[in-house]
Model the fold of this input.
Amino acid sequence: MSDPLLAKFVQTLARPVGKSERARARLHLLDWLACVAGGRRSEAGELGGAISLKGWERATYLGNVLEMDDVHRTALLHPGPVVWPAAMSLPSAGMDARLDAAVRGYEAMIAIGAAFDAHHYAHWHPTATMGVLGACTAFGSLLGFAPVEYANALGNAGSVAGGLWHMRHDANVLTKQWHIYHAVRTGRDAALHVHYGATGPQAVLEGPQGLFAAMTEQPGDLASNGERWLIDTVSFKPFAACRHAHPAIDAALELRAAGKLEPPFTVETFRDALTFCDRPEPATELEAKFSLQHAVAVVADGRKAEPEDFTEEAIAALAPLRKQVSVSEDPAITARYPAHFGARVNGFELLDTRGDPERPIGEKELIAKMHSLARWGGLPEGEASKAVSLALHEHDPEAIDAMLEEWIR
Done:
């Protein structure tokens, strides 16, 4: 009888984290802080400020508000909003320990998440279902887990994994943010219980009443990046919209830069982009972020696809341009998805999108994103510069804790 999948997988979590992965983790930390800064004046920010006195816990409500959180394409989930609060949640942990915790949290969330199929994504919110595993692993790393402890904790965390997409059918609910909070707290608690002696079902993935049986039709293999960590395969999001709209935004920007973006606008893309983002008449800020039609209208109007381009004012202003946008599926683009998020606008096609590993953005762009979102969130310029320094260069995690508590009141 072979060992359970979790028992095999957790051996990879015991590897030492190298300097290059810590440097990469710092970029993702900056990206998460930028998203938190940008979301602080939202309704979710008010709820986060009321829910706790701890900065990391308040921030669980803000990391995905603007739809600018990092994303893994093949696992179809957003690690940053879940993993970073857990990695920052032990006050006694030093900076390197927190960075290592994040790297391991990304690894678990992505590796296991990549095994879940299209049936899962059609019904379940993977950032929630897999987020509980990422948070559990990150906190377990802070606690100094051995492989068997990771396996037990992940077994318990997986036994209560959940989070349905149904909130997409209700306007202006905070369920998506609640999913993040729940995943962080539940994953963290699963690790804490094992730290004090609890055990868990290590075959919770492949068992007869496990996650694969309950949530998938054709589960795949767990992902691996060979000797390297999976955090290197995560994409950053430069635009304030659903990731499925990014290929169309990027293609439209390329056309605009070449002076070739003229109406009418035709968008051909993958099926999931239409499932989530075929919304010709958005009425709210959230709906605009999930509208291919609005996304292309934003670019056609000369804008940068920043948060202010998806407000109710922008929705009203861009109504004439949206009417000139038509969207459809291209089966060839769907066939390449999710390994490649592509789109064709007015005949111009992009195979990969800005922010993907194939078309990376780096430190300069992420610093600019931090400053842009800090302004949107009402923070002074000095706060953005402080966040950049703390995330990229310093070894003072307590200063990050204090900064988050100051940002979210």
User: Anything to note?
Assistant: Residues 169 and 287 are 11 Å apart (CA to CA). The radius of gyration is 20 Å. The beta strands are 265-269, 325-329, 343-345, 348-350.
